[in-house]
Amino acid sequence: MNKYQLLLAFSILVLFTSCRTSEPFVSGGDQWNRSTELEERPLFTAEFEPSEFAGRRAAVMEQIGDSAIAVIQGAPSPRGYLPVRQNNEFYYLSGIESPHAYLILDGYNRETIIFLPDRDERREYGEGKVLSLQDSTLIKELSGIETVKPLSSIVSELRSFNANNLYYTLYTHQSPYEEQAMTRSMAYRRLSDRLEDPLDNRPARFEHLIAEIQKTAPILDIENLDPIVDEMRKIKSEAELTLIETSTRLHGEAILEAMRSTEPGVKAYELEAVAKYIYWKHNIQGDAYYPLIHIGPEAFMNHYHDSTRPARNGDMILMDYGAYYEYYSSDMARMWPANGRFNDVQRELYTFYLTFYEAVLSSIEPGLTPQQVMQNALEITDAAMEDFTFTAGHRREAANRFLSSYRRSAENQRMTLGHGVGLSVHDVGDYTGPIEPGMVFVIEPQFRIPEENIYIRLEDMIVVTEDGVKIISDFVPRDIRSIEGIMRDRGLLQRHPFKLDE
């Protein structure tokens, strides 16, 4: 060993010794981590008491009766590197997020059975714990479910119900399941598109489940569980309302920050990025639907998305983009001018629309039917519009058509004001009857002027309580003066102006 090698060896020895004997750079003792638990992610929702899920299951069993069972299928494993997300149907009755799970609600014994796969230790080693069959004691404690059985036994369990002369009917969902960013109507659209594909004739999961049940338990008559659970979901509990209000608060803050960040030249995906910052900073689960951020005439295609055009001086912007917070969504829309100031035409048409819109909001009362609300709103609008003038004949004609369409709707006793919101952004349930406490819904009148590709839409979250009606999205202004005031503030995009191409 030459002198250079000796010097190198000595230097390494000194460095090694100093690293072992010196104090750590940051305080914390002689531990690598201050945290001691391998993971702190909750295994079950903290937003609901087990008794709430148990109450929902009990309500279902009460309605299906003593001689029936209900079978609910959970979501499969996620596609690719995505977090597990339970379908709404299964989550609503259990709170359990484990994939490939099943529930059986036994009407005779008033008992719930959950079927779960065995623990996948290799997967948990790399990805963290998932509730499985081996957690039966913990699952009973967390969810209030009485019995936990292996997934492998569900076929024999169904056969036993089939052979037991106490049971005659089996209820299960007979529509596509609501998963991430999925409404029932969109699920049917997806299924319809697939049926048009001559090389892809797979049934939907719910259809496949029904076929398997028919083979396994042919004696049991199969009935649709959807009407029972849909009506239950229409009326929200206090815990559900709390989550919906949180989701709405995040939605509104995202829109407000997008308003502040708007200036000529901004693109839709930049405003989406601002909204996503608000959402992800507060731990949302994901988009409730793709961002509807319309620049100028794009709004005429009311579900247009993935816009790339820059906003031009004089354009109007429409933003409608919500997220899931602990499985619950919101739905809200606002419009504003790209340059921060409503011009004369924008002010004229927006004022007309807002007159009608506010009349509808102010007419909503518990106990009234949607038809009665609309009739009252039209009376208010007619009185307010007596002296209103339009600067162009085709705009006045469009306004008359718009109001006339609602007059025709108000002749229908089964009309709706909008749609429900909850686990789905277009939630299930019948909203044609009298307005009841616990309902959450939106209104979203759509005013079009085809000659100019003009489209105007606002949307607000309405919660009905025993004390009356709350517009929980009211903190995001709709009036012209307030919108212009908000837009005078600098937004995130102005405070952080980095551009990739600069």
Account of the 3D structure:
- The chain is an alpha+beta fold.
- It contains 16 helices and 17 strands.
- The strands form 5 sheets. The chain has a 6-stranded mixed beta sheet with strand order 4-3-2-1-5-6, sandwiched between helices. A 4-stranded antiparallel beta sheet has the order 12-13-16-17. A 3-stranded antiparallel beta sheet has the order 8-9-11.
- A hairpin with a 4-residue loop joins β14 and β15 (454-457).
- It is globular, with a radius of gyration of 28 Å.
- The chain starts with a helix and ends in a 7-residue tail after the last helix.
Keywords:
alpha+beta; six-stranded mixed sheet; four-stranded antiparallel sheet; 16 helices
Write the SSE topology:
Elements lengths: L2 H19 L28 H15 L3 E6 L14 H7 L7 E5 L4 E6 L4 H7 L8 H8 L3 E4 L3 H10 L5 E4 L11 H12 L9 H12 L4 E4 L1 H9 L3 H24 L6 H14 L4 E2 L4 E4 L20 E5 L2 E2 L8 E5 L6 H20 L6 H15 L8 H17 L8 E3 L19 E4 L2 E4 L4 E4 L2 E6 L2 E4 L8 H8 L4 H4 L7
Parallel strand pairs: 1-5, 3-4, 5-6
Antiparallel strand pairs: 1-2, 2-3, 7-10, 8-9, 9-11, 12-13, 13-16, 14-15, 16-17
